[in-house]
Amino acid sequence: MNADSNVLLLPLCFFGLYMILEAADWGLCLSAPLVCRSRDENRAVLGLLRPCLDGNELWYFLGLFMMGAAIPGVSDNLFHTENIVLILLVAAGALLRMAASLFRNSFSQPAVMKVISVFSYLALAVMGLAGSSLLMNDGSQFSVLGIFCALWMILAAFQLGTLYGAVKAVNPLAERFRAAFLVSSVLTVVVYIILAILLKSHAGDSNTYGSFFWISLVATAILFVAAFFMTRMRHVKVGLAAAYVSSFFAIAIYLSAYAAVLPSLFTVEVDSLKQAMDGMPSTALLVIAFVWTLGAFLWRQIRKKEYYEWKDHV
Fold it and tell me: For an engineered disulfide with 308, which of 40, 128, 135, 264 has Cβ 3.0 to 4.6 Å away?
């Protein structure tokens, strides 16, 4: 990767941080109508969305802001139409999940849960399509690459959400979450392999990216297989840990393709990015925000299970 690619690593890391931290929340919303059989189970799933204020969206907004500053050709400013749509989707998703976790009795109705799920599918699809357009010479969103980016974002979130539910819910809901993860695994593997091939074809034959691509792809595959078999053997905590690390490498492949391709399609304005960074919150505030979001993530991993009363057996 050249110097221009290195300039883009910081905003791309912010996108990756958001994807890792928020994927399980999106995934719980995606999968809830498929695994829940009662309002009590719906309430249990909504309880898994806590804590409400984790601040993960901050990293997406910062990434969007810095990307627009570094590559003016991508968007004239933060309030470009496409950016507004992405900001609204991310913010609306966060507010919707926060309201649902706070007012579980009202949001646990099956019809409302389906609305939340449909919104989550559409939001992730739009984010995948919008992101892929940056890699296209003509800026097209509805391309083969765009379709597989959208599918992968949905499936990746679905997998982490269901596996997190398998760890933090109780049976029989936890068992349904586990089954949903296992059943969707084959489709996820197929979609990601196709996406990886498409990303590699767009990124070209750069020696640096090529080496990173293959190493990360092997790591992703090994860890995903480990997550699958650990989950199949009901070691869901180990499976969740392996799935998160696998997702890290998968996201790294995805975002590094942008670092390799964007400098060849757009002019990277280093000075513009520096000016934008001068207007950002101080380093101390960013450190506090990082500690807050990381703390919320770690709390979610060690929190107690979400219990509910299973009445179907009566």
Answer: 40
Q: Is the pLDDT of residue 265 over 90?
A: no
* Tokens 């293959």, residue located: 214
Neighbours of 26 (CB within 10 A): 24
This prediction's pTM = 0.92
**Which neighbouring-strand residues pair with 306?**
169
What is the C-alpha to C-alpha distance for residues 294 and 34, in angstroms, rounded to an integer? 29
Q: What is the 3-state secondary structure (H, E, C) of 140-166?
A: CCCCHHHHHHHHHHHHHHHHHHHHHHH
pLDDT recorded at residue 79: 47
The b/e string for 27-60 (b: 16+ C-beta within 10 A; e otherwise) is bbbbbbbebbebeebbbbbbbbbbeeebbbbbbb
Question: 169 — phi, psi (to 5°)?
Answer: -100, 175
- Residue 28 is given by DSSP the state H
DSSP letter for 135, please.
Answer: G
pLDDT class of 78 with cuts at 50, 70, 90: very low
In the block, which residue shows the tokens 């083969």?
144
